[in-house]
Model the fold of this input.
Amino acid sequence: MEKQLTDHPAGTDSAPPGALAAEPPEQANCLDRLLEEASDHLQLQMLLIETAAGNEQADLGLIARAYHFAAARHTGQTRKSGEPFMQHCVEVARILAQMRLDSTTVAAGLLHDVLEDTPVTIEEIGVEFGPEIAGLTDGVTKIERFQYESREKRQAETYRKMLLSMVKDIRVILVKFADRLHNMRTLDHVDEEQQMRIARETTEVYAPLAHRLGLARIRWELEDRSLKYADPEKYAEIRDKVAMKRGEREAYIEEFKAPILAELKRNSIDVEIAGRPKNFYSIYTKMASRGKPFEEIYDLTAVRIIVNSVRECYHALGLIHTLYHPVPDRFKDYIATPKTNMYQSLHTSVIGPRGLSVEVQIRTREMHHTAEIGIAAHWRYKSGEGSESGDFDRHMNWMSQVLDWQRDESDPAEFMENLKIELYQDEIFVFTPMGDLHQLPLGATPVDFAFAIHTDIGLHCLTAKMNGQIVPLSTALSSGDTVEIVTSSHQNPGQAWLDFVKTAKARHSIGRWLKEEWYAHSVRLGQQMLEGELKRYRKRVESDLLDTVAQELGLADGEHLYAGIGSGDLSVTRVVNQLIPDSPKRRIRPTMKDGRGIRIQGMNDMMIHFGKCCTPIPGDTVVGLMTRGRGISIHRTDCPNSADITEDPERLVDVEWDLEEDRSFAVQLLVRSTDRKYLLSDIARVISDIGANIRSTSTTTVDHLAKQTFWIDVRDTQQLQAVIRNLTAVEGVTQVLRDEPDLSSTA
Done:
């Protein structure tokens, strides 16, 4: 839970004698007796009544024992509202009882904060209530007792632990949702900064996770309450306008449903019809995405139709389409192809009275129950109260997959990004050429489809055919598409794939492959760099000594030492000093040509790039800088970032120009002038006459004063000086400078 408690001197609300003693089931479940025993605990009485109403088999005695245990431990603690802390625990348990969950889960709701906020240990809970409740309580507890270097790291590890606990027992997240929901209901009592942080976290993680698990009722309330704190003015505007339109909307729904009720009755279909109010957050996102005010959002009217069977769902759909004209492309059949969160329903939009569009959902009562509380409705099957445990497990597979993809992800920011990618997704349905159906997020590409089939197919995806036609790998797929993937053993992922893939599996698999490939490249590069440096001393080093030095530097072995050098994380000079500490400092410096216009002392086959901060060209005095993971960066010695470049002398490398072929280098020019007709044409002609090539240009003019930026290709500084000299002679030109790009990076 979010910390909302303070400590006060212990009160007198302790457990009654014998309250923790186990009782025979028939006695424990005697509601009347338990209510009488709880006469001094009104909250417990309400909880027992709600639990019994939703679950006749509930172990009410277990819930009473959990209540007294938690109340004794939380005695004297209050929330920031001033209310007794135990009130929060009871409200969490009531939310779980209202979801008709089992008594074990309700008891865990009562105990969910004792590990975090009291001295109670998980062993004590195990002794008192058994390993099942102990596991649920531990799964909900945040990782507060461990130290991480940042809040982001702690948050990522908390979610990782929560996902792992969910895979073991889905009830963990149900307790966590109840905890978060009650905290959102009482968020007025924390400071504004906390409100914003908790609201953002709820919108970004908890609400989409609730959607992913089919917990629609919880998701809507979480979204609306988050909006209240994230954008209070817009929330108040929508709330007030929805309230003003309520009577008008209800009257219209009555007018709309009257013909439907009559027609379904004539066809002997037992039906319930009700208006389905849209939650405030849904209206808010429509206003934001469409850039329209509330008054111009017309599709706010929706109707839900509940029947007894799947056959009646389709029958009702046909009858409605005979009464009202359907809107093309607005029909979706989630009964034949359920969403991954188990949601099933028929969706259609029709033109109702007065020409207004109305959304219609048609479903059975069982589908409606699942749509409201999602995975919670299926827990009974998992626990043996039905025959669909296999269906439950299939729906939970995605969670295990998320853990598998993210288990070795050490970057908390990347873990959270991938988690949100997996949670924020609407769905499309695409087919293999053999007719197998695959569900993918909206906007998924053939690469996502390839990884969904098998990781190896994704890694070697060469081309794709969509409905028989070859398409780019970045093409967005649509529901109903048939996709065929062509693979090649010579094809591997590219960095650009990360720019368009939509699934967490594809993103993680590509990222992992690129890291492994980069590691192998860093090993090769680091080995060349170290061996090149050692040649200056006419030395060779045995692998055993290399492993020893690696371990002294905190690395596993020589291979990881090479990788550290190649990635720029480890100075080659430092390694050499460790390997041959007594070697004379006078060194033989053979030069080996790189082949890209730069000669690097002692090294070849190096990755080289030219610093964007100073764009060096032949003729400039230059220096090389070992960078992290990008080889050597070439800079002018008068680079604007020279202070940063020379900060670590061990990373500097001797380089010089060595051009034997016709090469060109990009440089930026800034030209200031008095604007006149044909000025740009005259400047371009001068540049071309000298043999330079114009890559791009931009011009801004204020009060007849022109400022023009040119990117041109030149061979060397001599050609550049000729360009500058001749441009200065152009009529109207007042200044020509070699400009520095607006970059602060040294790489």
In short: The two ends are 44 Å apart (CA to CA). The chain has 29 helices and 24 strands. Residues 232-266 form the longest helix (35 residues). The mean pLDDT is 79.
